[in-house]
Structures are given as C-alpha cells and as structure tokens.
C-alpha cells in the first residue's frame, strides 16, 4: 500500500508491495565474521517462515524442519522487514551501549523475491569506541551506518514451497 505522502509526491503512482508471506525451503546459507569470506553455515535452517505483520511488514522465523513446524519465535525488532523496497522489503536496526566502551551496531537486512526465489542478505557493521569520545546512542550508529567496519554478513537463498 502506498503512503499518502508518497502518492502525493509521485502522482504517477507507486509500485505494489511484494508479498513475501509463506514458507521457503533453504537451499543455501553462507556467512562470514568479519565480512568478506563467506562460508557455508554449520547449521543452516531447513526452512524459513515469512509472516505478514501489521506493525513490522514481515517477520521471519528460522525452522529446523521441512514442514516449518519447529521454528524459532521471531523477534519483530530484529527479525523483520518493515520497509518495502523494489522487489522486496528491508529492515535496519541500530543499537548502542556500554559504560566505558561504546559499541555502535548497524544492521541492514533485505529480503527480495525473484519469482519464487527468496534472497535474504544481512550485514552488520560495528565499531567499539571509548564512550567519552562519542554520543553512545542508536542515532550515532545510524549516522555512521556502513562507514563502520563490517562485522558479519549472512546470505540465505530459498525457494517458496
């Protein structure tokens, strides 16, 4: 659904949102920490369940079985894609904390659909800074974003069942 502001700004219309809802069989799961040398995940999920959510767009659960009966409970703040993008949805999570050392963390994740093939990319950027030298707040992590070192990357490819 297009927002009123977007509709007003784009009188030509806007693209329809992609429906990610459903169960997907995982075919590939790679990750790296730090980023740059993706390796096969030691324990990849068998399936993913993407669930529509009024407040969070789509939330996803990793499941250990093919029937998606044994799934983790998704955390809507970290396991979600609240913003529609071309071909899918994305989510950005920023956190910051620490007493003497401030850990700034910026995680961007996208879920795109190519026919029946789902691709999820998750990238986390992190920087630890003496707390006295920075505003230790999520806004600072958002401001720095991908300019911070890439700490983790994960890519999941799956097909809709």
Helix and strand run:
HEEEEEEEEEHE
Helical stretch count?
A: 2
Provide the gyration radius in Å. Answer: 17 Å
Termini separation comes to 25 Å
Model regions low in confidence, pLDDT < 50 over at least 5 residues:
1-14
Compute the average pLDDT: 91
Biggest pleated sheet = 10 strands, antiparallel
Helicity, as a percent range? under 10%
Strand fraction: over 45%
Derived structural class: mainly beta
Shape call: globular
The counted number of beta strands is: 10
Give a description of the structure.
The chain is mainly β and 161 residues long. It is globular. The model is unreliable at 1-14 (pLDDT under 50). The longest helix is centred in the last third of the chain and has 7 residues, at 138-144. Strand 7 (88-97) and strand 8 (101-114) form a beta hairpin. Strands 1, 2, 3, 4, 5, 6, 7, 8, 9 and 10 form a 10-stranded antiparallel β-sheet that branches. The protein has 2 helices and 10 strands; from the N terminus they run αβββββββββαβ.
